[in-house]
């Protein structure tokens, strides 16, 4: 699934440049981020993700029973292997035709099962090695493809980080130039302000001197 957030290419920070910020700056930055997020289309970009499925495990009886067993610290019931045993009727059932038929059918099932296992083992012995080699060959090919894709992605990420660093270092130089320019302008404005104040004092003194001369 490819999630595209409109305007996301303009969302960035300056991790190579930014210094530690104050609490007021953090609040102001968060305010800017919230204002930017309000312009996203769609506004709730997480809505593109699949909805979380909440499974009600209590609706599964076998799980509920197993959880109850664990709460009571009871061991799990052992696997019943009686169906795999081949036994003949004994005792009172020795003359029961129905029990004999069930025992005979079970013996036939077990024999058929063993025949199938034997066939599977023969097939595995004859073709298993080549099939396994082919499977391993496919896995090696898949591993090489994924490794190549991983290296490519790492290279792309590294290139992005390098370009970001270059742009940010170039940006910090511009920021410093503007800061120096701003400081120079502030300094010059202060000099002009002081000069104006000095001129104003001279004007005031001249006015006072003139008034004294006029009175004399």
Automatic annotation (TrEMBL):
Q: Which GO terms describe its cellular component?
A: catalytic step 2 spliceosome; Prp19 complex
* Any coiled-coil regions, as ranges: 136-216
Q: Name one GO biological process term.
A: RNA splicing
Pfam families referenced in this protein's UniProt entry, alphabetically: BCAS2 (PF05700)
Domain of life where this protein originates: Eukaryota
Ranges annotated as spanning the membrane: none
Location in or out of the cell:
Nucleus
Alphabetic keyword roster: Coiled coil, mRNA processing, mRNA splicing, Nucleus, Spliceosome
**Protein family according to the UniProt entry:** Belongs to the SPF27 family.
Please identify the protein, giving its name as recorded: Pre-mRNA-splicing factor SPF27
Organism of origin is: Dictyostelium purpureum (Slime mold)
- Supply the source organism's classification: Eukaryota, Amoebozoa, Evosea, Eumycetozoa, Dictyostelia
């Amino acid at each position: 699934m490819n999630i595209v957030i409109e305007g996301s290419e303009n969302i960035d920070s300056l991790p190579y440049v930014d210094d530690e910020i104050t609490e007021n700056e953090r609040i102001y930055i968060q305010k800017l981020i919230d204002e930017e997020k309000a312009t996203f289309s769609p506004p709730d970009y997480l809505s593109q993700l699949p909805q979380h499925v909440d499974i009600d495990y209590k609706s599964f009886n076998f799980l509920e029973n197993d959880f109850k067993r664990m709460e009571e610290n009871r061991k799990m019931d052992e696997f019943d292997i009686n169906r795999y045993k081949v036994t003949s009727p004994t005792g009172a059932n020795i003359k029961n035709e129905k029990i004999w038929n069930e025992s005979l059918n079970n013996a036939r099932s077990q024999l058929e099962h063993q025949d199938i296992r034997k066939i599977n083992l023969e097939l595995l012995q004859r073709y298993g090695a080549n099939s396994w080699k082919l499977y391993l060959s496919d896995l090696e090919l898949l591993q090489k493809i994924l490794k190549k894709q991983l290296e490519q992605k790492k290279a792309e990420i590294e290139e992005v980080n390098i370009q970001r660093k270059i742009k940010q270092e170039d940006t910090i130089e511009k920021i410093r130039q503007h800061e120096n320019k701003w400081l120079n302008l502030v300094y010059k404005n202060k000099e002009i302000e002081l000069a104006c104040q000095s001129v104003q004092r001279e004007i005031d003194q001249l006015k006072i001197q003139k008034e004294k001369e006029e009175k004399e």
